């Protein structure tokens, strides 16, 4: 019996290939397949990525592997990420080009030219320095999708202080865990933000979180997002963002020349243990890689208006809202709201008004658009679009085709990009001006990337067979380590398929996948205790412990279905209909945040278990997704499966 659990919603086999539209190919950034050249020149091929940046000091070598798997890219080089994203675009004609277009929740919009953004970033950098932030201090940023978030990120980068962005929807508990784990003494946050129409108090969460941090938080900067709608009080060591910047108006701050290997940021993500892991990205390799992939895959050009509808609180936003697009000097759009407020055509109205060229989102969003109906995109002029992308989870062929036809009008390639927080940037996807597309498969590995699907012994599996998705050669965007956890880094990603004695290091992605005879990879989901829902990665252990902490709950198992499914068995004599789901929801909100709230809670007297007492999440996942259950002979209590199927079918 295969004990591996593939909890993602694997897609059906990829359909026939679709060639990229000629109108796109004729003007694509990349029109010829560089894969062969990359393989011949590897690792020297990655100079092409480094060349997209401006270096303060040229690097000595492309790749140093003497401390593998702690690889060093562009070693000896010095650069500053903020200078690459801003200063160098100010020379020549670009200073008055829009860098950032912000679309607020209340219909507000704000545009920053490259010059305006650079000025605010320098003021913010001066303010942070003034508060005592020095190079290598970790600054926590707990902000929603407002311009002050990228400003603060770039201000940190300018002074060489790694940022740790915590998604604004995470709870006070989650915030304090991350502040503490990163030993961060500085925080930038806001008074609150609008949720649908209502003012939501963020600062209350922050004050609670800071109280429970074990070390001293020296300064908290508060952006006043809500004004009169939510008056707030500034306590000791708390400063108003706009007052601080005004005090540093017009100041210039020299960008700190960082070693290529120096940290740019930490991003906490879910791991197998339930403890969040601080994935650390180094400056030179990461920035080169996100710039290169944004150019090659998203086809971003300086004159474009580019929109990635993710949140900056996740890696997608770091790489492809902020660093990649700004390094290339394009206009990046920042959207604060939700896709269906005030109405279900909100995104298409924004695309039309801003003449967006490239649009990148998550499959779950596309599934929602599809459910709402084609009349919403069709009621707007979307002819400015030339390329569409998805990221975060598998996209099934039906949804892919709907996106291609109803959003792209059949004229835009769709790139299904597979990557992870740890990979820094895209790894598997078609090159939109080069490769044919197969709906349902992410695509082949990018140039220079050696991805293989292997069996438990590390041997490549035959086409069509499922196995573990591994990467054999290092790549510039790869994480440098886990914050404060070099051993955990090796253990978590490099232990399963590597042979350190032979100097043979293999990266284990934790995903299961299948390759077709043309080398196109379909990603099936996680092999470990992590679930992906809407491009958010959550640890089942963390979620389950939040649920089990609820009085009246005996046991819980969480899987990915159409959203997050929680199977909960109540304690003897407890009637779950008496408010239990609400309490579970609140506990999850408090422990992790509303993003982790189960979409569906299924009560059951028992969970399906193996004879050794292990909960069979694989089965629970199949039940949630209405899939074939396969072999259930290992179960101690097979009857429960039928009961669960019935319960779910009835609801
Ligand atoms: C996990 C990484 C990469 C930024 C967003 C999530 C899943 C990601 C795809 C895709 C199938 C995908 C994987 C991966 N995933 N992209 N195109 N097809 N699955 O970053 O939170 O680090 O999650 O998301 O399971 O391991 P993350």
From TrEMBL:
<dbReference type="InterPro" id="IPR045851">
    <property type="entry name" value="AMP-bd_C_sf"/>
</dbReference>
<dbReference type="InterPro" id="IPR000873">
    <property type="entry name" value="AMP-dep_synth/lig_dom"/>
</dbReference>
<feature type="domain" description="AMP-dependent synthetase/ligase">
    <location>
        <begin position="95"/>
        <end position="480"/>
    </location>
</feature>
<dbReference type="InterPro" id="IPR042099">
    <property type="entry name" value="ANL_N_sf"/>
</dbReference>
<dbReference type="InterPro" id="IPR025110">
    <property type="entry name" value="AMP-bd_C"/>
</dbReference>
<feature type="region of interest" description="Disordered">
    <location>
        <begin position="1"/>
        <end position="41"/>
    </location>
</feature>
<dbReference type="InterPro" id="IPR032387">
    <property type="entry name" value="ACAS_N"/>
</dbReference>
<protein>
    <recommendedName>
        <fullName>Acetate--CoA ligase</fullName>
        <ecNumber>6.2.1.1</ecNumber>
    </recommendedName>
</protein>
<keyword id="KW-0436">Ligase</keyword>
<feature type="domain" description="AMP-binding enzyme C-terminal">
    <location>
        <begin position="542"/>
        <end position="614"/>
    </location>
</feature>
<dbReference type="InterPro" id="IPR011904">
    <property type="entry name" value="Ac_CoA_lig"/>
</dbReference>
<dbReference type="GO" id="GO:0043955">
    <property type="term" value="F:3-hydroxypropionyl-CoA synthetase activity"/>
</dbReference>
<dbReference type="GO" id="GO:0043427">
    <property type="term" value="P:carbon fixation by 3-hydroxypropionate cycle"/>
</dbReference>
<keyword id="KW-0067">ATP-binding</keyword>
<dbReference type="Pfam" id="PF13193">
    <property type="entry name" value="AMP-binding_C"/>
</dbReference>
<feature type="domain" description="Acetyl-coenzyme A synthetase N-terminal">
    <location>
        <begin position="36"/>
        <end position="85"/>
    </location>
</feature>
<dbReference type="Pfam" id="PF16177">
    <property type="entry name" value="ACAS_N"/>
</dbReference>
<dbReference type="GO" id="GO:0019427">
    <property type="term" value="P:acetyl-CoA biosynthetic process from acetate"/>
</dbReference>
<dbReference type="InterPro" id="IPR020845">
    <property type="entry name" value="AMP-binding_CS"/>
</dbReference>
<dbReference type="GO" id="GO:0005524">
    <property type="term" value="F:ATP binding"/>
</dbReference>
<keyword id="KW-0547">Nucleotide-binding</keyword>
<dbReference type="Pfam" id="PF00501">
    <property type="entry name" value="AMP-binding"/>
</dbReference>
<dbReference type="GO" id="GO:0003987">
    <property type="term" value="F:acetate-CoA ligase activity"/>
</dbReference>
<comment type="similarity">
    <text>Belongs to the ATP-dependent AMP-binding enzyme family.</text>
</comment>
């Amino acid at each position: 019996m295969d004990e591996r659990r593939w909890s993602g919603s694997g897609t059906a086999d990829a359909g026939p290939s679709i060639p990229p539209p000629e109108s796109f190919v004729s003007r694509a950034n990349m029109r010829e397949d560089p894969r062969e050249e990359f393989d011949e020149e590897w690792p020297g091929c990655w100079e092409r990525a480094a060349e997209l940046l401006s270096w303060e000091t040229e690097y000595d070598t492309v790749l140093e592997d003497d401390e593998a798997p702690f690889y060093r890219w562009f070693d000896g080089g010095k650069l500053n990420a903020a200078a690459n994203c801003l200063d160098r675009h100010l020379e020549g004609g670009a200073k008055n080009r829009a860098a950032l277009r912000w679309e607020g929740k209340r219909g507000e919009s704000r545009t920053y030219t490259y010059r305006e953004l650079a000025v605010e970033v320098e003021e913010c950098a001066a303010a942070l320095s003034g508060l005592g932030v020095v190079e290598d201090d970790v600054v926590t940023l707990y902000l929603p999708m407002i311009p002050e978030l990228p400003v603060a990120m770039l201000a940190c980068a300018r002074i060489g202080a790694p940022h740790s962005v915590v998604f604004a929807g995470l709870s006070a508990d989650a915030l304090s865990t991350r502040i503490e784990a990163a030993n961060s003494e500085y925080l930038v946050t806001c008074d609150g933000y609008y949720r649908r129409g209502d003012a939501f108090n963020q600062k209350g969460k922050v004050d609670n979180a800071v109280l429970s941090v074990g070390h001293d938080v020296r300064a908290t900067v508060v952006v006043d997002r809500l004004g009169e709608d939510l008056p707030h009080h500034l306590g000791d060591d708390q400063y108003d963002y706009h007052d601080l910047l005004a005090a540093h108006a017009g100041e210039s701050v020299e960008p700190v020349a960082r070693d290529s290997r120096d940290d740019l940021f930490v991003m906490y993500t879910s791991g197998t243990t339930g403890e969040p892991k601080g994935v650390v990205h180094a400056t030179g390799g990461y920035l080169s890689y996100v710039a290169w992939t944004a150019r090659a895959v998203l086809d971003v050009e300086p004159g474009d208006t580019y929109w990635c509808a993710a949140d900056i609180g996740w890696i997608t936003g770091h790489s492809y809202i902020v660093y990649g697009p700004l390094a290339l000097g394009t206009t990046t759009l920042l959207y604060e709201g939700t896709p269906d407020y005030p109405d279900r055509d909100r995104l298409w109205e924004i695309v039309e008004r801003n003449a967006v060229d490239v649009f990148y989102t998550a499959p779950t969003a596309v599934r929602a658009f599809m459910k709402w109906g084609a009349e919403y995109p069709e009621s707007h002029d979307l002819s400015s679009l030339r390329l569409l992308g998805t990221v975060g989870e598998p996209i099934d062929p039906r949804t892919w085709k709907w996106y291609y036809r109803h959003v792209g009008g059949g004229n835009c390639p769709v790139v299904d990009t597979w990557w992870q927080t740890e990979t820094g940037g895209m790894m598997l996807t078609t090159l939109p001006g080069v490769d044919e597309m197969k709906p349902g498969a992410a695509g082949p590995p990018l140039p220079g990337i050696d991805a293989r699907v292997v069996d438990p012994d590390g041997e490549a599996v035959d086409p069509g067979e499922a196995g573990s998705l591994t990467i054999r050669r290092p790549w510039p965007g790869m994480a440098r380590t886990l914050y404060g956890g070099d051993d955990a880094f090796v253990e978590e990603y490099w232990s399963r398929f590597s042979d350190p004695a032979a100097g043979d290091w293999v990266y284990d992605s934790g995903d299961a996948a299948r390759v077709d005879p043309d080398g196109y990879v379909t990603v099936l989901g996680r092999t470990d205790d992590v679930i992906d829902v809407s491009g958010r990665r959550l640890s089942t252990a963390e979620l389950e412990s939040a649920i089990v902490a609820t009085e009246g709950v005996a046991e819980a198992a969480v899987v990915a279905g159409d959203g997050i499914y929680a199977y909960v068995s109540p304690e003897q004599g407890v009637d779950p209909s008496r408010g239990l789901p609400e309490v579970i929801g609140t506990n999850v909100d408090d422990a992790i945040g509303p993003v982790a709230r189960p979409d569906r809670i299924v009560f059951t007297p028992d969970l399906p278990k193996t004879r050794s007492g292990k909960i069979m999440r694989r089965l629970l996942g199949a039940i949630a997704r209405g899939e074939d259950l396969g072999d259930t002979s290992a179960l101690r209590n097979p009857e429960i499966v039928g009961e669960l199927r019935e319960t779910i079918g009835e609801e």
